[in-house]
Design brief:
single chain; 465 residues; alpha/beta; Spore Coat Polysaccharide Biosynthesis Protein SpsA, Chain A; eleven-stranded parallel beta sheet; 9 helices; 41 strands
């Protein structure tokens, strides 16, 4: 029989103290609910749906890339059972098993869900509850057993003193047989001031009907950790970060200080790469083999080839760096930048929408924007491309083996041909032909005795400067 997945994501998350929907807070580069969806996909479900409520449109927009994802809307947040009832139009005519997950429980593992569904199907259970044993179970519903079998689930507020001593808790993740589900949901009594309907009430109903009720206990209680506050979000972030770092180190990456290394879920790093303290790798960044990333480096959605050295405190965003290149320290590579093989980008150099060819160098204090720079080019210190005229961006094109002297301004649109030289201190406004020397600077004038005259109080107005 086919499996279906439903993710509950309608809650407001008031303890987060945030205007953002709780399930859209991010861990390791992904929203909480995206972690849950990826894990759920390992079941190859026949359908997957999300129950939305608070700020529903934001959640829908964030998940728009999941083309086949269904949505149910819980207008009033009246408990987990009520949320599940809102999915009846999507699931009421389906048969098979339904796995119910929480959008704020991102650590659940694929292997655990596989074990849950296998147990559920093997036992022909009406419901199988995922449980965990906690040293401090405060706040969770307790698993009450009779003769070793699940008898009922008692919420913390309703538990007796003896029941509060129980350590096994309800993990809030279930597998249901769809056939009796929605009819039974309507039998759960509403409780509290807002008439809330809670899923654990199904256990009591199914036991009364004589339907099979099963449990599966997780190996690691962290798997069922829900996120209800900024503190809990930070704690789970630490767990995910450590797990990712361990995965990389097991694959041959050297991470000198895992506690200060932040690597997003979708980042890949090749073996024998060394990551120094304080490095941040975000988005879908790809780092090759045998690279070295020094302290304070931040790389976002970029591709870095093999044998690349990135020195301290560089920011690299949506850029591509080829094999054997050297970058930094204190360099800034902005979107749509390509650095060629064995090229050099030095300290306090900024590149934006620029390709720096193989073996080319821009070693000091330069801004190169909207530029195409050939191979074997030397860009002197303090060179800038003046690419913006106040209305439009224009390109600068520099050919192969060009030498650009220090302190040069290249006013786009402008082209410097192959093997040309540009004299230091030039302001280039016209094209420089191949194999030519471009010189564009004022002639120096020395005024003898000017300082002495100034000290003596003589008039040294603007016309004298």
């Amino acid at each position: 029989m086919p499996n279906h997945v439903l993710i509950l994501a309608a809650g407001q998350g008031t303890r987060m103290r945030s205007s953002r929907p709780k399930v859209l807070h991010r861990i390791a580069g992904l929203p909480l609910i995206e972690h849950v969806l990826r894990t759920a996909s390992t079941l190859s479900p026949a359908s997957t749906a999300v129950v939305v409520g608070h700020l529903a449109n934001q959640v829908r927009e964030e998940l728009a890339h999941h083309a086949s994802l269904g949505f149910a809307h819980q207008t009033e947040q009246r408990g987990t059972g009520h949320a599940l009832l809102q999915a009846e139009p999507l699931l009421g005519r389906q048969r098979g098993s339904l796995v119910v997950l929480s959008g704020d429980v991102p650590l659940i593992r694929p292997a655990t869900l596989q074990r849950l569904i296998k147990t559920h199907e093997r036992t022909n259970a009406a419901v199988t509850v995922l449980t965990a044993t906690l040293v401090r179970p405060y706040g969770y519903g307790r698993i009450v057993r009779k003769d070793g079998r699940l008898s009922r689930i008692v919420e913390e507020r309703d538990a007796s003193e003896g029941q509060r001593q129980l350590k096994e808790i309800n993990g809030g993740i279930y597998a249901f047989d769809l056939a009796p589900l929605f009819g039974a949901l309507r039998e759960i009594p509403a409780t509290g001031a807002v008439n809330e309907i809670y899923l654990p009430g199904l256990v009591t109903i199914y036991r009364r009907r004589g339907l099979p009720v099963e449990t599966v206990e997780v190996d690691n209680p962290d798997e069922v950790r829900g996120i209800n506050s900024q503190t809990e979000l930070a704690e789970v972030r630490r767990i995910v970060r450590q797990s990712k770092n361990e995965e990389l180190m097991a694959a041959g990456v050297t991470i000198e200080d895992p506690a200060t290394t932040y690597v997003d879920t979708d980042v890949t790093v090749g073996p024998d790469t060394v990551i120094h303290p304080g490095v941040i790798l975000e988005g879908r960044t790809i780092i090759g083999s045998r690279c070295e990333l020094h302290a304070g480096v931040r790389i976002v959605d970029s591709t870095v080839g093999d044998d690349v050295l990135v020195n301290n405190h560089c920011v690299i965003h949506r850029a591509t760096i080829a094999h054997g290149a050297r970058v930094g320290p204190f360099a800034h590579l902005r979107p749509d930048t390509q650095v060629g093989e064995a090229a050099r980008v030095g300290n306090f150099v900024e590149l934006k929408k620029t390709s720096l060819g193989d073996g080319s160098k821009a070693n000091h204090l330069s801004y190169l924007g909207d530029a195409t720079i050939g191979t074997g080019v030397n860009v002197g210190a303090g060179t800038i491309t003046c690419n913006y005229d106040g209305d439009e961006k224009h390109r600068t094109t520099i050919g192969d083996r060009v030498f650009v002297g220090s302190g040069t301004e290249l006013v786009a649109p402008v082209t410097v041909g192959d093997d040309a030289y540009v004299a230091a201190g030039s302001c280039i406004t016209d094209d420089v032909p191949a194999d030519a020397l471009g010189v564009a600077r004022g002639r120096q004038v020395n005024k003898e005795g000017w300082v002495t005259q100034r000290k003596q109080g003589h008039d040294t107005g603007p016309s004298d400067l």
